[in-house]
Amino acid sequence: MERCPNCAARWEGGGTCRRCGMELTGLIRIEQAAESLIARAIAHLESADPEAASADLIQALALRRTPFAQHLFCFAQWLASVEGADATSLTHINRQLEDSRQWRKSNSRF
Fold first, then answer.
1. 3-state secondary structure of 106
2. Got the DSSP string for 47-84?
3. Residue 6: inside a domain, yes or no?
4. Which end of the chain is more exposed for a tag (fewer CB within 10 A), N or C?
């Protein structure tokens, strides 16, 4: 969360908004739960289980819709639809996922 959803004040990391006093801890917990589900989905993808990843991503998207989660869900759906994916192609995909994870960590605003 970068801004208070009530008054748009910049969020400074506390449990309440500094300007309007809105309680933000519930929203912060929801964001953290969504991030945890995304991390679990990435782990499922790394272990070549796109169906489990899709299930986690559906839950994450229900909590917080982000472009990253949407793209990852589309990728998991595509991967689940690929027939006869061999170990070589899955290894290549895992490398790309790791690159994506590294990029995401370096560009995270949380």
1. helix
2. TT-HHHHHHHHHHHHHH---HHHHHHHHHHHHHHH-TT
3. no
4. C
What whole-number distance in Å separates Cα of residue 6 and Cα of residue 67?
22
- Domain containing 74 equals 34-106
Which residues, other chains included, contact 60 with Cβ-Cβ below 8 Å and sequence gap of 6+?
A: 34, 35, 37, 38, 41, 69
Mean local confidence (pLDDT), 21-38 = 95
Inside any domain, residue 17: no
Q: How many domains does the chain have?
A: 1
Paired tokens of 52: 């489990």
18 found inside a domain: no
CA distance 2 to 9: 9
Residues 6 or more apart in contact with residue 37 via CB below 8 angstroms = 56, 57, 59, 60, 63
Residues 45-90 have pLDDT tens digits of: 988 899 999 999 999 999 999 999 999 999 999 888 875 555 556 6
